Fold this sequence. Notes:
The protein is an all-alpha fold. It has a domain at 33-66. The chain is built from 3 helices and no strands. The protein has helices at 2-22, 34-54, 56-61. The relative contact order is 0.05. The mean pLDDT is 76.
Amino acid sequence: xxxxxxxxxxxxxxxxxxxxxxxxxxxxxxxxxxxxxxxxxxxxxxxxxxxxxxxxxxxxxxxxxxxxxxxxxxxxxx
Length: 78
C-alpha cells in the first residue's frame, strides 16, 4: 500500500511548493495585467469583425448593412 501513496504524496508536496512560489495567498487580491486586458479587447474586436463578415449577407438582407454607396442617386452630385 505504501507504494501507491508515495507518488501521490510526492505530487502533493510538489503542488504545495509550486503554490508557495506563486507569492500570493489570495488569488483575488491580484490585479489583471494591462497587457492581458489589451489582448482580450483585441481578440474580442477580431471576433466581432469575423462574425460580421461571416453573416454579411444575412445582415444586408435585414437592412442592417448597406452598400458602400447606399445614398439615393437624387442626392448625389452630377
